[in-house]
Fold:
Amino acid sequence: MGKIKETIMKYSTGFYVYNMELFKDSVAIALVVSCGSMKESENQRGFSHIIEHMNLFFDRYSCDRKMKCLGYTDFFYTYYLFVTYGLNVSECMERINEIVTGEYISDRILKSIKMDVLEEYYRKDKECNKEYKCLFNGTEYFDHFAIGNIDVIKDCKYSDISEYYKEHYIPENTDIIIMGNKAVIENYVSNDCIVRHTRKVTLRPKYCIADFEWVKLGNSGKLRLYFYRHYVERDKSDLMYDSLFLSLLEKAALNIYGKTDVGKIVFSSTEEFIFIEVNNMLIKSISDVKNLLQKIVLMADTQFISEFIVKYKKEYLDQIKNGYGINLVEEMKQCISSLEIYGELIGYRELNDIMLQGLDGIDVMKISRMIDALINNNESFFLYKIIEL
Ligand SMILES: [Zn+2]
Structure:
């Protein structure tokens, strides 16, 4: 235990425990490093992702069933996720210790993983998520996809990678979340390592601007209306309002147009896209778009919203009565994102509490204003792009 404590104290300023009584022995651990592709300069495109591969080198040929490892990199962070149990927690912490001390940052390992990264590049380039690229076209994000730049990846030198690593893999950039039964965890981590205060939330800049475009990408017969949303400040109750808003939007769109789909793409703690997907036969021009949005807003009046809330609440209660399966990885992802956005761990348990407490006193006008925003484009919520898929 001494060693683990040392690791945590030395290499991470944020250490959080999420207690799951239900679990006997399973433990999930996340190492979240504030080192994402937005930090890369032009000759560093792809470095964060390369480092992620280097750091998981130990897992490359391992068919170890004691520990499941997963890594991914986005615009702002590199994530390392481990799922393990009981006695293997120590070993897992050892690996984390090695990641944060640069054990895997060597010329040999860089050479060994380069092919993997290149292959991944070509694969992603071929799959070529055109829609995703189109969404970020013209923004700062477009030049910062985590996969990076092919020439930079091919030519990168160990010394450059090492320098980048040293700059970003520092204690202030590192959070560790450990999830499982508290009694089990306490065998490995002493109480005084654990952070109890809320984490400081980073107010990220806004990179997307109102630059409306109608883009035809394919002939699938589907079309998506993308709205851009920027948050300046967020309150935990927004989790509930947001989920209500999306379901309500879907319900109203469904009533008007039949089969529709509503979804959300979160790419920063302050910026996200919300989309409504419809059949493109119904929408040929911008006036058709206005028409549809107008109809949604008209339909979702306060009475419609109030009735919707009653139903929503009932369904929600039924759903939790039946219980829900816990998936450690999903639960961990939920906690990581809440830590970034709200500065605290909000798992599905807390989410339920927020819903149960909130669903009784919902501000109908607040939802009504959210719906109205569909037609009152403003700086923090506007129709961003229309993409024919
Ligand atoms: Zn990868």
